[in-house]
Amino acid sequence: MQIDFIGHGFNKNNKLNVGDQIATSLKSIHFDSFTAFVAFTALSGVNKLLPFLKEAKNKKITFFVGVDNRGTSKQSLEMLLENDIETYIYHQNEEFVTYHPKLFLFEGKVNSRIIIGSTNLTNSGFLSNIEANIQLDYRTETDRQGKKLLNEIKTYFEDIINLSNPNLFKLDKELIEKYDKMGLLYSQLKFGSEVQPNDGENPDEKHIKNEFYENEFGNGIEPNNTHYNKRVSFSQNDFDVFPIFLEKYIIYKLNVKSTGAVNKNTEEKDLFNWYRRMKDLIKEDLLPYELASQLIDAGFPFDNAREGQIRFIWNKNFDKLLKFKQKEQNHLDFTYVPNTKNKLSPYYELGSWCVRQKRRRNNLDTPVWDWDYEEKKMKSINFLWEVPENFGTSSIVNDEKWTDRLLELEEYYEDKKNASTIPKQKTDLGGWLNEQITLKLTGSRGKNKRFLHPIREALLGEILKKNNIEWERQKQIERESIIRLIENWKKLELWDSKPPIEQIKQSEKLKKEISKIRQDISSTKFRAKKWNKKDSSWKIEMFLKAGFTILENDKE
């Protein structure tokens, strides 16, 4: 059994978080089913996992969710229902009893995984809160402790798992409306300070004030907008609902009003409120640039602030590109960001931004490309807009697949046991790497030879260099072997210089080692007789420089 602690909030450098682990586990071929016992859900948490839940649609997926203390949002349940995620609500209609587990089970024929701790199905639970969880991985059939733990969990939750508990209800529209009317759910479609109200403390329910759209009496002033001081701040709820409303807004702009302005008389009142909310945040310069960038891409009307906001966001992204250049490609005379659809890739966001800039530059996207400012900035780092179609007859198609393999190779070298090695050729990664090395050194077979493109050569070469791997791997292995043999040869000379009486006194272990060295040198001398002098001149040179003669006729 392998046990890992997953904590985040204190240490910003933590690579692991529960959201990542759940997403990875849903994608994994090792697990056939996923069962979640979770107290509270929010749009942010469900939305982050939704692509992975859809990808795992052929697996058995079940959620057992709580609705106590208004900790679960109505919209998160609607999203689960709309996407046909099997979900059950546990609610015990008793005061001071809260359904409060945070437990995730992944089961497979060979491997199983249990994650248990403090994390709810919310964005803050996944990323920003200070959370603590334990992940246990074990062999399904052979790990006794793992089997025992899973059996104990299933026994404890038995009448929930087998759906016989009287407090368990299948999620449907009627149940959501019922709990909403009972005041058990909170809404994430109201804007302002309203957030998840509680995490299981059972206080008296209090009215949650929407400070952004409620004005207090007695503070009125004459109608002069320059003196109107509206209290505005960016909230977690703004972040959580942003992707939901952005999608609605894009559809509205496409089908209703191409200018992008949302009419106050629209039937979609929630969309209008969100639109006004974005306007307020933009006006006060409070909207995070990564969200503002998405609004710009969607053609959101920024009014007078638009130009300055666009430039501010663009410069932020260009700074990221500049840091990438300085860190990853400072030794190259060009800048090129690999494009990938893998959202977990460190290149994903920057690569997507670069693709959007290329589309803008080619008049395929808005806003209009600034040839005086943006073009000069990109030229300053020699950004490569167009990858040459051919090198020899080498094509650079399937760039995303190639980039994903490159990232896989980086992950391979993150494991310290893989230092100074290459993946086995029989593996997919090893076969791919061998193909790249062949394209670099000799090109492909056949009349129409293909060679590794210089850009790919630079990107892959950098990873290999960091991990002490050379393109001519076989030659590197032979050279390292010769270096070791020369070191042993010197050890043998030192041994032979000792008087026989001194040699007799040495340990049997050392005597065996010396005997082995003598055999290795003799064997190398025998093989050297068959060497092609032209191809092996570099080997002979290494021995001669060290003061050793590997071939008799090389003696001076």
Computed Rg: 32 Å
Give the low-confidence spans.
200-229, 389-396
Provide the β-strand percentage band.
5-15%
Mean model confidence by pLDDT:
81
> How much helix, percentage-wise, in residues?
40-55%
Tell me the distance between the termini.
63 Å
Characterize the biggest β-sheet.
Answer: 8 strands, mixed
Give the CA-based shape.
Answer: flat
Structural class: alpha/beta
Total beta strand runs: 12
What can be said about this structure in brief?
This protein is α/β, with parallel strands linked by helices and about 550 residues long. Helix content is about 45%, strand content about 10%.
Structure description:
This protein has 20 helices and 12 strands. The protein is α/β, with parallel strands linked by helices. The strands form 3 sheets. Strands 1-8-7-6-2-3-5-9 form an 8-stranded mixed β-sheet. α2 packs parallel to α3 (74-82). The longest helix is centred in the last third of the chain and has 24 residues, at 473-496. It is flat, with a radius of gyration of 32 Å. The two termini are 63 Å apart. Residues 200-229 and 389-396 have low confidence and may be disordered.
